[in-house]
Amino acid sequence: MKILVCISNVPDTTTKVKFVEADTKFDTTGVQWVINPWDELSLTRALELKDDPSTGVKSVTVAHVGPASSEPTIRKALAIGADDAIRVNTEPSDGYYVASQLAEVIRKEQFDIIMCGIESSDFNGSVTGGMIAEFMNIPSVSAVSGLKIENGKPLLTREIDGGRETVSVPTPFVAIVQKGIAKEPRIAAMRGIMMARTKPVKIYEPMEAQSLTKFIVFEKPRPRAACKYIDAENPGLLIQLLQNEAKVI
Amino acid sequence: MSVLVYTQNWDGKFKKSSFELVSYASKVADMLNVSVIALSIGAVENDELKKLGNYGAGKILNVNNEQCKILDNQVYTNIISQVALKEKSSVIIISNNNEGKAIAPRLSVSLKAGIGSGVSKLPVNLNPFTVYKRTYSGNAYAQVVINSEIKILTLAQNSFDLFETTNNSVIEDLNISVDSSLLKTEVKDVQKMAGKILLTDADIVVSGGRGMKSPDNWGPIVELAGLLGAATACSRPVSDEGWRSHDEHTGQTGKIIAPNVYIAVGISGATQHLAGISSSKYIVAINSDKDAPIFEAAQYGIVGDAMKVLPKLIEAVKELKK
Ligand SMILES: Cc1cc2nc3c(=O)[nH]c(=O)nc-3n(C[C@H](O)[C@H](O)[C@H](O)COP(=O)(O)OP(=O)(O)OC[C@H]3O[C@@H](n4cnc5c(N)ncnc54)[C@H](O)[C@@H]3O)c2cc1C
């Protein structure tokens, strides 16, 4: 069984988000780039499955669509424990374009389980995993909070409103994962960092594909009204304000 | 030409969020000067379907095939895609909830339709078709141009008001044939928690953080939530520690919610937490540290010990209910 984890390269979650060129571009000055949090959790789960011989998982590959500048994020994934990596050498212009590229790579390399995060923390699109599956005409399971392999058969937990379901689909499939898939992201140990330097990164040149969307301008959220403080001795006033001023209770 | 809105049902019933979707779809249809068609998949009674008409759906299509009993993303995509082509839909509107996120991207490829995901406002421009969406996990908003012929918009929950109109709707049962080999999802087991107000549906949310100190201190949070008809939530460390169940975790890596009021108790207000709650209409902070960042996000604040403030709040709400 071969697992592919798709990873996106995003600004660290504590980044002070700013824009340049009349708010048309994200300001990358001083930004720390990290593996998208959900992709990091997917990778962690994939490695846990590989660590358990009963699952039959033989390899964990990571794939990324992005220019050479995103290499450090790929190396980080290798340091955490991925066996090898694939990079499609192009700017990830939109979800449709990225998914076209990934689907092409997956067709060539053949994987049994393809894992994608539920969204990337920069563009919050929630689209890549489902699009890959449709391009490849294979099943997808979304809102996946658990993945195990029993008797060679993958079983997925998917979140539904007010509960969860255990489902199975034939391989190959795309699992679009969210919270719960792994407890805490695995971190790279020194040995892993050393080994990552020599692990293979295969570079693919992009195929001809389209983008269907384009970000044209960004804006910061409007500042909210300043906080109105209520005396801790008289919290009843808060209830009155919520009822009569905000009119929300 | 039409705007197609897919309205999910829950055991044959719609929710407020379904009517928000239809209201949104009719406003978009007004902008484009076309009609709104609502699509429901699964077993829903006509009385229930008819309700979609109150928010502007002209035609209500009902597809109830054998293959629709469980959510299979390929089957659902195939049905919506067929209907969209048949009805010449130029815009398709879907909720940005779990089911919507599962289907919309597949539909995008199937129809070669660009997606504006998690929109919270009407399109800002029709030519080029431009939508307004949340980006950088709520740290920014963006205008996004969709340049395909068909457009898909997924609407953030609790972000659009209901607009009632006169109901002139007609209901049509639609027979859509789906290749049975598409159905590949097998559901082995279902676990449902009955009777809990869903966090993503709730108008009021009471949430506790690490400042609550111990899972044994949650009584007043649950009591306050009960009195207000609110859902309960928590910060990530609280669910990581197992003090509260995982489905209460809000924030960047948990649930993203937009209630009318979010009451944060003993929560410091880390960016990753705010990422999940910043679309709330009002944020209330109760925290013993006057410098906690949550007060910068809040409109109402109480600086004080949660264990002393909560009982007084509960008394005040009880007083109000009398
Ligand atoms: C990649 C990544 C993703 C993350 N995603 C999330 C996420 O989705 N959601 C999330 O919540 N966090 C997330 N975090 C963690 C986040 O950074 C914070 O650590 C977390 O939100 C802090 O939780 P807290 O506010 O409950 O605890 P703390 O930061 O410990 O704050 C506790 C607060 O309680 C107050 N307090 C203490 N005693 C009392 C008292 N008696 N009465 C009143 N107030 C009191 C303190 O003043 C303090 O402000 C993420 C972190 C990373 C790196």
Structural summary, described in words:
The complex is a heterodimer of chains A (249) and B (322). By secondary structure, chain A is an alpha/beta fold. Chain A has a single domain (2-221), classed as HUPs (Rossmann fold, 3-Layer(aba) Sandwich). In chain A, 26% of the residues lie in helices and 30% in strands. Chain A contains six helices and 15 strands. Chain A has a nine-stranded mixed beta sheet, sandwiched between helices. Chain A has a two-stranded antiparallel sheet with strand order 2-5. Chain A has a two-stranded antiparallel sheet with strand order 3-4. The N and C termini of chain A lie far apart (53 Å). Chain B is of the alpha/beta class. Chain B has two domains: 2-182, Rossmann fold; 199-320, Rossmann fold (3-Layer(aba) Sandwich), CATH 3.40.50. Helices cover 29% and strands 27% of the residues of chain B. Chain B has helices at 16-32, 46-50, 73-86, 98-111, 219-228, 236-240, 271-277, 294-297, 306-321; strands spanning 2-6, 35-41, 59-63, 89-95, 114-119, 125-126, 129-135, 140-146, 151-155, 170-173, 186-192, 204-208, 231-234, 261-265, 282-287, 300-303. The radius of gyration of chain B is 21 Å and the shape is elongated. The chains are: A alpha/beta (249), B alpha/beta (322). Strand 15 (228-229) of chain A pairs parallel with strand 16 of chain B, so a sheet runs across the interface. Bound molecules: flavin-adenine dinucleotide. Flavin-adenine dinucleotide is lined by residues 209-211, 235-238, 251-254, 266-268, 270, 272-273, 276, 287-289, 292, 305-307 of chain B.
Short précis:
The complex is a heterodimer of chains A (249) and B (322). Chain A is of the alpha/beta class and 249 residues long.
